[in-house]
Amino acid sequence: MSNVKFNQSGEAQSTSTTTTGETEEEIQDDWTDYQFKGEAKLSVSDLDVHYGADHALKGVSMEIPEESVTALIGPSGCGKSTFLRCLNRMNDRISAAEVDGSVELDGEEIYQDRVNLVELRKRVGMVFQSPNPFPKSVKDNISYGPRKHGDIKTGLVAQMLGRANKDEEDELVERALRNAALWDEVKDRLDDNALGLSGGQQQRLCIARCLAVDSEVILMDEPASALDPIATAKIEDLVTDLAEKYTVVVVTHNMQQAARISDQTAVFLTGGELVEYDKTEKIFENPESQRVEDYVSGKFG
Fold this sequence. Notes:
CATH topology: Rossmann fold
CATH superfamily: P-loop containing nucleotide triphosphate hydrolases
Number of strands: 12
Largest sheet: 6 strands, mixed
Structural class: alpha/beta
């Protein structure tokens, strides 16, 4: 087990007292040095995000360990989704967004000019709140990404490869769907339009799309918020299974869900502050900050 430091940079924005009577400035170090299994996959330092005059994230620093589930919780508008989008530069698509600070993936800075954004978003995939399958067959939803990235040969090369290329594609589709716990439900419907699947199946199909291009990190923005309890349970089971091979970061408003599926939890509160980040059990049973205690106990939010 390696030691991973989690440093909260910048001055604290609040002087609220904690459950121990300390000010929040005095307990910053209490949650910045603790142990997780594995190395840091993503390292974030002094991250600030502005949307025009709106300061959406303020000096956020944290490290996200590999092969684990990290939950991001907090009230609406606190910066959770903004933070998530920073991890694969999806905020670049928002013209008003201005990002300062550092995000490293396996020790390499992603906010530098020479970064290939297509390759970055292949390595760091995203699953959105509402399922967004392509209006294509189930099979084409899976194979589209690998074809675009050249992992499955197309055109003249494909014609020359013939049957071998089709076998390669079939194997990739089956593997991705199995890893997304969807194969048994759709193996006889691979040529059907993916829009005909249920909401929960569509969401797992979107996860399978990430797996098909060998994403190393999977970002999920409230992936079960539009699903019924049965479909939600399948997504939660899948997230837990994925953490055996992948790094998963999940935004959720459901604190019970965060407690069920995550290894560590980051609490963002109004104003774009990362108030506390620790092992999930610690966050929910014995947080350092009084504000976090009030939030997870339902006193506000």
